[in-house]
Each structure stands twice: as structure tokens, then as C-alpha cells.
């Protein structure tokens, strides 16, 4: 009977060794699978993160371009307003001597037209940024 006991003990040890080896294989496969998932997660984060950064850079560039264009447009509008003001002043200076020759009623109408023109220019200056 000692042989049967030795055989059963050896078989039990062999079964325990196989079970332990199987457990190690399963745990190892689980660890490798987890590592692969982590690598894929990092790659996905990188792929998703890069387009976002690129989009943010593009939006920033567009904002800068729009700001530059707006500044240039405002400067151009201011230049045009200044030129228009100068032209109006020259026309008024040229017409002023002629107004003195007009009859009284026509002179009053001309004064009212000048007052309305000044009011219109004042309103225009309030609508155009930087023109005031």
C-alpha cells in the first residue's frame, strides 16, 4: 500500500503543479491583456488629443486673422471718415460766401440744412468706432 499512497501523493503534487502553472498562465495572460489595453488607451488618447490641439491652433489663427482684419478695416474706415469730413468742410467753406447772397428765406433753409448735416455727421461718428 505504500506504493498507492506514493502514487496518490505524486499525482496530487502533479495536479497541484499543473493547477499552479495554469493559474500562472491565466494571470500572465491577464497582465499582458491589461498592458495591451493600456497601450491602446494611450494611443487612442494621443490620436484624439492631437486633432483637438490642431483645431485649437486653427481657431486661434482664425481669431488672430479676424482681429487683424478688423483692425485694418477700422483704420481704413477712420481714414475714409477723415477724408469725408475734410471734403465736407471744403464744400461748406466754398458755399458759405454764396449763402450771404441768398434771400432771407433761402438763407434760413440753408442754415437748417447745415444744422441737419452737422447732426447727421454727429450721429454717424457715434455709429463708427474710433471716428469720434
List the helices and strands and how they pair.
Elements: H1 2-99, H2 104-127
Give a short overview.
The chain is an all-alpha fold. It has helices at about 1-100, 105-125. It has one domain.
What is the CA–CA distance across the termini? 116 Å
Strand elements, count: 0
Estimated share of beta-strand residues: under 5%
Gross morphology is rod-shaped
Structural class estimated from helices and strands: mainly alpha
Task: Characterize the structure shown.
With 132 residues, this protein is an all-alpha fold. It has one domain (2-127). The protein has helices spanning 2-99, 104-127. The longest helix has 98 residues, at 2-99. The radius of gyration is 45 Å and the shape is rod-shaped. The termini are far apart. The mean pLDDT is 84.
